[in-house]
Write a structure and sequence with these properties.
This protein has 231 residues and is an alpha/beta fold. The strands form two sheets. Strands 1, 2, 3, 4, 5, 9, 10, 11 and 12 form a nine-stranded mixed sheet that branches. Strands 6-8-7 form a three-stranded antiparallel sheet. Helix 5 crosses helix 6. The chain is globular and about 55 Å long. InterPro entries: 3-oxoacid_CoA-transf_A (IPR012792), CoA_trans_fam_I (IPR004165), CoA_transf_BS (IPR004163), NagB/RpiA_transferase-like (IPR037171). Pfam families: CoA_trans. Keywords: Transferase. Belongs to the 3-oxoacid CoA-transferase subunit A family.
């Protein structure tokens, strides 16, 4: 029997997220962004959050809306600035937001390490750059590496295409992005999906995130946004 809870609303799905939590937020830009869960988190009111994501928001929707609401203390991401990241830009330049930049591959691997129970790993990315400051350096087989530690989340908010009644998830194309590794790296994983189908109707070979990594699922109507450019 699955432990995954099927929730009636996005608000119910994010209930209980505490102030000061570390929240892993799926999405590659707008692709795979869990818009409904983020909007519900804004209504829920949790603040002083540390958000881990690929970027720091687009326009004023999704993650950018959470930043604009003043709920985030720190962002850990790979690409904080882009043509429509003006919400992040203004908060960061005003000293209202902390930033930790992590190379994209390292970001994915550090979350994967958390899910796999790996205590730390050595990686050559960022050697010789400002991102190497303060990190342990080691030479292995003639190459220089940096010691990297896992990134764990108290919660993960992710978007998938569909779930079955047990909470097994399948994704659609690039919307898959960071969802699978985030699901394994969080203590509580919350997924929004376009539909919940009967248990047994998903091809087991197509399931990317097994239900054991999923705590709550809510079905919402799919939303699509396009990048509008800078203000």
């Amino acid at each position: 029997m699955s432990r995954t809870q099927l929730m009636e609303t996005a608000d119910a799905a994010v209930a209980g997220i505490e102030d000061g939590s570390t929240v892993l937020v799926g999405g590659f830009g707008l692709a795979g962004m869990p818009f409904d869960l983020i909007d519900a988190l804004i209504r829920q009111g949790a603040k002083d959050l540390t958000v881990v994501a690929n970027n720091a928001g687009n326009g004023e929707v999704g993650l950018a809306a959470l930043l604009k609401a003043g709920r985030v203390r720190k962002v850990i991401c790979s690409f904080p600035r882009q043509v429509d990241s003006y919400v992040f830009d203004e908060l960061y330049l005003a000293g209202k937001l902390e930033l930790e930049v992590v190379p994209q591959g390292n970001l994915a691997e550090r979350m994967r390490a958390a899910g796999a129970g790996i205590g730390a790993f050595y990686c050559p990315t960022a050697v010789g750059t400002p991102l190497a400051e303060g990190k342990e350096v080691r030479e292995i087989d003639g190459r220089t590496y940096l010691l990297e530690y896992p990134i764990k989340g108290d919660y993960a908010l992710i978007s998938a295409h569909a779930a079955d009644g047990m909470g097994n998830l399948v994704y659609r194309k690039t919307a898959r992005n960071f969802g699978p590794v985030m699901a394994t790296a969080a203590a509580t994983t919350i997924a929004q999906v376009s539909q919940i189908v009967p248990t047994g109707s998903l091809d087991p070979e197509a399931v990317v995130t097994p239900s054991i990594y999923v705590d709550r699922v809510v079905a919402v109507e799919a939303r699509h946004y396009t990048v509008q450019g800078a203000r």
